[in-house]
Design a protein that fits this description.
The structure holds four protein chains of four kinds. Chain A is mainly α. Helix content of chain A is 72%, strand content 1%. Chain A is globular and about 55 Å long. Chain B is mainly α. Chain B is built from 25 helices and five strands. Chain B has helices at 2-20, 26-50, 74-99, 107-125, 129-147, 154-181, 190-197, 201-219, 228-234, 237-247, 249-262, 267-290, 294-321, 325-360, 371-374, 376-390, 396-411, 424-447, 454-457, 464-482, 488-498, 505-542, 566-577, 601-619, 627-647; strands spanning 55-59, 68-72, 545-548, 583-587, 592-596. In chain B, the strands form two sheets. Chain B has a two-stranded antiparallel ribbon. In chain B, strand 4 (583-587) and strand 5 form a beta hairpin. Classes of the chains: A mainly alpha, B mainly alpha, C mainly alpha, D mainly alpha.
Chain lengths: 306, 652, 480, 217
């Protein structure tokens, strides 16, 4: 097993390990910037450990979908991660059009999550589900604007092509367009992972929540796995954005792995900065926010098509 | 030959229903005959699909238009498979379905159903104008009679009327279409017509426009879709399954057949098809989101999926116009595969919805809830269908949408203006997201949570007649989704047949590889989920579990009435799209309710028809019963003619 | 042989007036009709047979229409037997007599090669049918027959003037016999253009009135609405077709004389006008028989339109005469059954009759699709040929207007007939729930006609096709 | 014999005007009878050499148009006890003016038509316009008079116009046809008379203006 073939696997494992760190870093940065000490960066690890040993409470009305939520969430996020060139050059599994597979794998997780929320019959979780699907539909749209732009730019149909070696050359020729696309992607990342300004993971008022409110009834290991899965999702997307902004395909394997770790931490910091700098939007404003992300990418796409 | 036997068995099945009426055993014999006939037909079609050869027979005829040609080529074979599978399953399902309604006499509708399937087969097998139009109209009339099965309800009568008028307009468009095609030849077999028109530009444009109208009505394209929701809602569910699964697909067949007839279509047509497809897809799913009647909702999803199919078709047309045969084959193939897949999962969904309707007696989402516990099998099947139609891996919907995406993205990489087609990609993604929202709503509100009405609370699992066929279709969905190599090469070869390009083996090989990779991804996904399932099992085993009420966020107890309703679930999303979402909302202090309406039917078609009627009423004054007035008409006419005579040189 | 086709019905009519027992009268009716069918069959075997030194003769057009008349009459007779059983004032003496006289007159129109003789036959049909319209002897039928008499007499008078003008146009060459159709056709180019034009204008008005082309159609709804259904069937099926024969003969001469550019616009204008009027009055029509009357106006329009566009259109309209005659007859008879059951022809009263009159209801449904030119019925083939003709002869706009109007007409007719067939009675009562089953006499006729219309949609016998093509060529057209 | 044609034709025109002008139904019928007689004589007069056919035809015309039909109409009136007034929709003066207009019009149209071929030149030259005039005045009567009986009169005048025109080609239309035409007209009027009779039975007056029951509501 040469390092070239090994690095993608290592990178995946690295991501899986470091994933809980990213939200931690984000919240910590935010705390520091707002002048508080805040919780330590490895807070999430501790929470997960605690949760894994707590008991589970299932609501009486719930059925299979509710039980399925953590399984699908983790499984499909990992499956999606297989398609991302985390190490900056190649993903573990790639095929033409796998960007569709990537997006739809995440959609699968969302589908199950929403059904689980509706399974409880609670109006709050129904509300959360409704918001989730609303914003997700728009994010899907914006996401594919960006992916289409990248595919036009690189003449590639797979993520490892889009975000891998071929992109590096294009940066020199089409910097502004790709810059816009990358910015758009970052905006979407915040929305997709329900971070501020779309959602505030730290709030405790159900009426304002989106993601959190959908998992109100989950507890113990279930809740833990769900939280872990969403952190993995965050870091995978973060890695993807990082790879696009900062193609490292030419570096040596070890360096690329280091770059991955650095990228994850940096993105975490970046998310924290954003969260500290702007407050959560009123819900009716969110579509506008997502649309702005889409608009940026669309502008890039048009520039590339021209 | 097999096909003829199959047709014969179908007709025989109808005859059995007529002969035995309500006597025992009729239904069983009927089911057996239909299944046997369909098996024959599928065998015949499969034969053609495997060795790509075209079989056809000629029947001497003395009607204008020369001999009748009937046969199977790859294009019709693909549709034959869909027709026979969906037809047979729905027919069997129908037996159980009609038994719920005691006072309705079921045997005529069963007989009509078998004949309708036969008519569909004839439509896709006809190779010359007269038999095609004949079978076409038989199909239309058959569907009318099936829609009117429950004609004691005014609703179904209205639906039937709208349907038949719309479809007749379409028929007249085809009338004109073939009249233009047959303008310069006395031999109206498709083969001869194909030679006739490749040259003529204006005629070809006329043909293509008329095709969009004539076949568009049948396919339910926006804005010609308006007949579709009422008809699908009014018809019995197995009929809706057939219509939505197969009958409207005949419109797609027609478009592909016309493309095959007139050769590479001009650019404007490709762009138009792509635009209409995108529009239908987005608006269809958006309007579906606004519905509360399960069957209407599914009907609007048919509009959406036809839109997706047309996006593929448009890519194919554009590619062949720009001379990119492989991409053309890809686009047409994607359209074909999505046609087949939609036939499968949409009929599956209709069959499940029908079971729910029969068990609960309502199609209104707001009356349902908690059915997952009452009818787990139906719930499972419905979930499969829903995941498939949303396009989630590892089900068949994903495979065809993946092909469509690939077509659009590859178009985006070409040098010509063709690359602008990539702009449709995000729209397709939006459609996917909206569909997910919509089916999360249906599945969640109808099957999960707690029952919203007593009838929903007392529902039970339906009989095997209903569950069996649905189960088989669900299996088909899963198989295509997990092992796409079974179908992808076939449809791509058919696609290149439609583009009338020689099949390029390297391209097929490449597509085969791609299909295997999709299969690989499906396997990986399943594996990942399995592993995390094991992990969860282990984690859960280590802690103790208990069951209690839902966390009510401080409220004492959660009641069924506190659940989120379908209206409110869809509201924020519809809000984003404002007026286009075609929904009237009533907000009250304690109540939020929304009632959907069809922007085309209620805002355009009905008003126009009303104004035509008003104009007609104004003309009534001409016939006021005075003999002297009538005599004045006569002398007036005569005077006019004499004037014409004088003008046209009546003088010597 | 040709003469027999006229004499036998005449004798039968005389007998019917003479005989006193109804039974005998019905026997005569049936026998004559059977004999007539037989004669027509024989005529098919011996084409071009003629009599009275050529005054009577059978050409393709005449033979086709004669066949239509004969078959339709047979169907009507079988219906009349059931009809006279159910309701027959005064033993149906006038009824049988006039029916047979009508048969004689229509046969005369079909076989007369002398145009003045044709006119005589035409006028006689009017007179023979009038007492039948008046069958019910009430105010409404009185009004109907009065309007019919005056309007069609005036119209037919114009036709006579047309005949005279044509005679004037004919040069007095020693060889050519005046007003003999064959000679006129042969020597068409030597006719005086001006007189010929004038003749055509009057003939068009006259025969147009008899056909019921808009705006000369105003007698149609009243007459068809009030006459007994079988009479309406005969009029819409046979009488109008005979009028078409007259018009067609004039048109053939005019075309042969090379006046196409003069005649075609007139025909197309009449056709479109009829379609428009039919459309306007079909929508929201509340009475079934009046609806069928307007549908008849529509189809007459199609006939002249086919002649006007020429080419395949001519073939189409000759074939359409046949199809429309059969379909109309079938519809009127089927509707008649329902009207007889309720005593009213208002659509609202006929709803829900499918329980007691299932066969008639089914026939109405079949008729709806047949009469709107849906495949696989014969009218599809003919209407398709007409549309093809319009497009081939570069009348694109005519074709477009035609299709648009046809679709609206379909909505109108479909709206009513579907309501009648599938609708429920407004008042919940099941109406005559205990009505006797439909008598075979009353359904066999329309069933047979329906079968023929369907057959013509899938198979046209070779000899018939030959005659149609021949007639089309005579009318300056060709075979599609 | 030939010299008679013109005065006879003028007489025909006069009868036409009389019908238009008179206020009495009986007078209308009488004038019609006179017209019929004139036609009968004309059909002989137009012939150069008197032929038995022409004589027979003339005789038949006189019998039917001058004797039988008028008598029959009077019978119908008597049975139906028709009120004597014509009750026109427009005044007599107006009808007369209309008649004048019609006559002028027919002469105008006739002047644009080629001459009727053959020897009886001038006579025919007058024949065609007067035939047209009679026909059109018949139409005027049909449209302006509301009584059923007067409409029959109008129809007969119209018919006479056509018949007059037919006289231009006695040598071409064979005797048989002429007779057939004559008989048809006879039967037509006969049936009309019957209907008029019935109309009176059903409705109190026989004004055709009452017959407006059948219409599109």
């Amino acid at each position: 097993m040469t390092p070239e073939t090994a690095t993608p696997v290592v990178a995946l494992l690295l991501t899986l390990v470091l994933a809980p760190l990213v939200p931690g870093v984000a919240t910590r940065t935010r705390a520091l910037l707002t002048g508080r000490r805040g919780s330590p960066v490895w807070q999430l690890y501790a929470d997960l450990w605690k949760l894994s040993r707590r008991g589970i409470v299932y609501a009486r009305v719930t059925s299979a979908p509710f039980r399925l939520v953590p399984i699908a969430a983790l499984g499909s996020v990992v499956a999606a991660a297989l398609l991302v060139p985390l190490d900056g050059r190649a993903s573990i599994f790639a095929f033409p059009g796998d960007i569709v597979a990537f997006a739809y794998a995440l959609a699968l997780a969302r589908f199950v999550l929403v059904l689980g929320a509706l399974d409880t019959g609670s109006s709050f979780e129904g509300m959360g589900a409704s918001r989730e699907v609303t914003f997700a539909a728009l994010v899907e749209f914006a996401l594919f604007v960006s992916l289409a732009a990248l595919s036009v730019a690189t003449h590639q149909l797979s993520l490892s092509g889009l975000a891998g070696a071929p992109l590096a050359e294009r940066w020199t020729s089409a910097t502004p367009a790709l810059g816009m696309v990358a910015a758009g992607l970052f905006i979407l990342l915040l929305a997709e992972c329900s971070r501020s300004p779309v959602d505030d993971p730290t709030t405790h008022l159900e009426l304002t929540m989106i993601h959190e409110v959908m998992i109100l009834d989950h507890s113990g290991p279930d809740l833990g796995v769900i939280l872990y899965a969403s952190s993995v999702k965050l870091s995978v997307l973060a890695a993807l954005v990082a790879r696009i902004v900062w193609p490292v395909a030419r570096l040596a394997p070890a360096a690329r792995l280091g770059a991955l770790a650095a990228a994850l931490v940096l993105m975490g910091v970046l998310v924290g900065v954003v969260e500290s700098s702007m407050a959560r939007l009123k819900l009716p404003k969110v579509p506008l926010y997502i649309a702005s992300g889409a608009a940026l990418s669309a502008l890039g796409l048009v520039l590339l098509l021209r | 030959m097999l096909l003829w036997i199959g047709l014969g068995l179908l007709v025989l099945a109808a005859a059995v229903q007529v002969a035995l009426r309500r006597r025992g055993g009729a239904d069983t014999i009927f089911a057996i005959l239909v299944l046997a006939g369909s098996a024959m037909g599928i065998a015949a079609a499969a034969g053609v699909l495997l060795d790509g050869a075209t079989v056809s027979t000629t029947i001497a005829s003395v009607l204008p238009g020369g001999d009748w040609v009937v046969g199977i080529d790859p294009l019709s074979a693909v549709f034959l498979v869909a027709i026979f599978v969906v037809g047979a399953m729905s027919a069997v399902y129908g037996i159980g379905y009609m038994r719920y309604d005691r006072e309705l006499v079921a045997w005529p509708s069963h007989a009509f159903f078998a004949l309708e399937v036969a008519a569909l087969v004839l439509v896709v097998c006809a190779r010359s104008v007269v038999p095609f139009m004949g079978a076409w109209e038989l199909m239309a009339i058959g569907s009318l009679l099936l829609i009117l099965t429950e004609h004691r309800h005014a609703e179904s009568r209205r639906a039937g009327f709208i349907y038949i008028v719309a479809t007749h307009v379409g028929t007249l468009a085809l009338f004109a279409l073939f009249a233009v095609l047959a303008r310069d030849t006395g031999d109206w077999s498709f083969g001869a017509l194909a030679q006739g028109t490749h040259a003529a530009g204006a005629a070809r444009n006329a043909v293509l426009v008329l095709a969009l109208v004539g076949f568009g009505v049948k396919a339910g394209l926006f804005p010609l879709h308006f007949w579709l929701p009422p008809a699908h809602a009014a018809a019995p569910s197995h009929v809706s399954a057939l219509m939505s699964g197969v009958v409207i697909k005949i419109g797609v067949y027609g478009l592909l057949r016309v493309v095959w007839l007139v050769g590479p279509p001009p650019l404007w047509w490709g762009w138009t098809v792509l635009a209409i497809g995108t529009l239908s897809a987005v608006l269809g799913v958006l309007w579906a989101l606004a519905q509360h009647d399960v069957k209407r909702l599914l009907a609007y999803h048919s509009v959406e999926n036809i839109g997706i199919i047309l996006m593929g078709l448009g890519v194919g047309a554009l590619a062949s116009a720009y001379g990119q045969p492989t991409l053309a084959a890809l686009g047409y193939g994607a359209a074909l595969l999505h046609t087949v897949n939609h036939a499968l999962f949409k009929s599956l969904l209709f069959l499940c919805a029908g079971a729910v309707y029969r068990e609960t007696g309502t199609r209104d989402l707001e009356q349902l809830g908690g059915l997952a516990r009452r009818m787990p099998v139906v719930w499972l099947l419905f979930a499969v269908g829903a995941a498939a139609i949303v396009g989630l891996p590892p089900l068949n919907g994903f495979v065809s949408e993946w092909l469509v995406y690939r077509g659009l993205l590859q178009a985006g990489q070409s040098a010509e203006p063709l690359r602008l087609a990539v702009l449709a990609t995000p729209a397709l993604a939006l459609v996917g997201g909206l569909a997910l929202a919509c089916f999360a709503k249906v599945a969640g509100v109808a099957f999960l949570g707690t029952p919203r009405s007593s009838r929903a609370a007392e529902a039970t699992e339906p009989s095997i007649w209903l569950r069996g066929p649905a189960f088989l279709i669900a299996v088909a969905c899963a198989v295509i989704g997990i092992v796409p190599p079974l179908v992808v090469p076939v449809v791509l070869r058919t696609g290149s047949f439609v583009a009338s390009e020689p099949v390029d083996s390297s391209f097929v090989a490449a597509s085969m590889q791609g299909a295997w990779q999709v299969a690989g991804f499906a396997a990986l996904l399943l594996a990942a989920i399995a592993i995390s399932a094991l992990v969860m099992r282990w984690l859960r085993a280590r802690v103790q579990r208990r069951v209690s009420d839902t966390w009510g966020c401080g409220y004492s107890r959660v009641t069924a009435r506190m659940q989120y309703t379908a209206s409110s679930f869809a509201e924020p999303l519809l809000d984003v799209f404002g007026r286009a979402s075609g929904v009237r909302t009533h907000r009250g202090a304690t109540v939020f309710h929304s009632e959907p309406f069809d922007l085309v039917l209620d805002r355009a078609v009905a008003p126009v028809w009303a104004s035509i009627q008003r104009a007609a009423v104004r003309l009534r004054g001409l016939q006021q019963g005075r003999l002297r007035t009538y005599l004045v008409y006569v002398v007036g006419t005569l005077t006019a003619l004499l004037a014409y005579l004088v003008i046209r040189g009546g003088a010597r | 042989m040709v003469v027999l086709a006229l004499v036998i019905p005449l004798v039968g009519s005389a007998l019917a007036f003479a005989l006193t027992s109804r039974g005998a009268r019905l026997v005569v009716l049936a026998a004559v009709s059977a004999a007539h069918v037989g004669i027509v069959g024989a005529l098919w075997r011996t084409p071009r047979s003629s009599a009275l030194n050529g005054w009577l003769g059978v050409d393709s057009l005449g033979l086709v229409v004669l066949t239509l008349v004969s078959i339709l009459f047979a169907a009507v007779v079988s219906y009349a037997i059931g009809f006279l059983r159910e309701e027959s004032p005064r033993g149906g003496r006038w009824f049988a007599g006039c029916l047979l006289a009508f048969l004689a007159a229509t046969s005369l129109v079909c076989v007369s090669q002398h145009l003045a003789l044709l006119w005589v036959g035409m006028e006689t049909t009017t007179l023979a049918i009038a007492p039948l319209i008046f069958h019910r002897h009430d105010r409404r039928s009185l009004e109907a027959v009065w309007k019919y008499l005056v309007l069609s007499s005036v119209g037919i008078a114009f036709a006579l003037l047309g005949v005279f003008l044509l005679a004037t146009a004919q040069p007095m060459a020693p060889g050519s016999r005046p007003l003999m159709f064959g000679d006129l056709l042969a020597t068409a180019h030597s006719l005086d253009r001006a007189w010929l034009r004038a003749a055509y204008v009057f003939a068009l008005t006259g025969f147009g009135t008899k056909m019921g082309l808009a705006p000369l159609h105003s007698w149609k709804p009243d007459t068809y609405g009030e006459a007994p259904s079988l009479v309406s069937a005969l009029m819409s099926g046979a009488l109008t077709s005979c009028a078409f024969v007259g018009l067609a003969r004039f048109t053939a001469i005019v075309f042969a004389a090379g006046l196409d550019d003069f005649a075609r616009p007139l025909l197309i204008a009449f056709g479109l006008a009829s379609l428009v009027v039919a459309t306007a009055f079909v929508i929201g029509q509340s009475d079934v028989k009046r609806l069928l009357a307007y549908s008849s106006v529509e189809h007459m329009g199609l006939l002249v339109l086919g002649l006007g566009v020429g080419g395949a259109g001519a073939f189409g309209s000759v074939l359409h005469v046949l199809n429309n005659g059969m379909a109309k007859g079938m519809l009127f008879l089927a509707a008649g059954n329902m009207v007889m059951a309720t005593g009213s022809s208002a659509a609202a009263d006929l709803r829900g009759l499918r329980r007691t009159r299932p066969i008639s209801a089914a026939l109405l449904l079949v008729g709806l699709f047949a009469v709107t030119g849906s495949p696989p019925f014969g009218l599809f083939v003919s209407e398709f040929a007409i549309v093809t003709g319009a497009i081939r002869e570069h009348h694109i706009w005519v074709a477009i207007a035609l299709l648009g109007l046809l679709s609206i007409i379909f909505a109108g007719i479909g709206g009513m007939l579907l309501g009648v067939v599938f609708g429920e009675r407004a008042s919940g009562d099941e109406g005559n729930g205990s009505a006797p089953p439909e008598s075979p006499w009353l359904v066999s006729g329309p069933l047979a006609l329906a079968a023929i219309v369907l057959l013509l949609g899938v198979y046209i016998p070779a000899p018939l096709r030959e005659s149609l093509a021949d007639a089309a060529r005579m009318l300056g057209g060709g075979v599609p | 014999m030939h010299s008679l044609i013109e005065p006879l034709l003028l007489a025909v025109v006069l009868t036409t005007f009389a019908v238009l002008g008179t206020s009495r139904v009986t007078a209308c019928v009488r004038m019609l009878a006179v017209q019929g007689a004139l036609l009968g004589v004309l059909s002989v007069a137009v012939e150069r050499h008197v032929s038995p056919h022409a004589v027979a035809l003339g005789a038949g015309t006189v019998v039917i148009k001058a004797l039988v039909l008028p008598w029959f109409l009077r019978w119908a009136m008597r049975e139906a006890s028709v009120r004597r007034e014509v009750e026109p929709a427009i005044g007599y003066m107006a009808s007369l003016l209309l008649g004048a207009v019609v006559v002028g019009l027919s002469f105008a149209v006739a002047s644009r038509l080629p001459a009727v071929g053959g020897e009886q030149g001038t006579a025919a030259g007058l024949l065609v316009p007067i035939a047209l005039a009679t026909l059109l005045s018949g139409f005027v009567v049909l449209i302006t008079r509301s009584k059923a009986i007067t409409q029959v009169v109008g129809y007969l005048m119209l018919e006479n116009g056509v018949y007059l025109f037919g006289l231009t080609l006695v040598d071409r239309i064979s005797f048989l046809v002429e007779v057939g035409v004559l008989l048809d007209v006879f039967v037509a009027v006969f049936i009309m008379g019957i209907v008029v009779f019935h109309i009176n039975r059903e409705f109190d007056s026989i004004s055709a203006a009452n017959l407006v029951e059948l219409k599109e509501s």
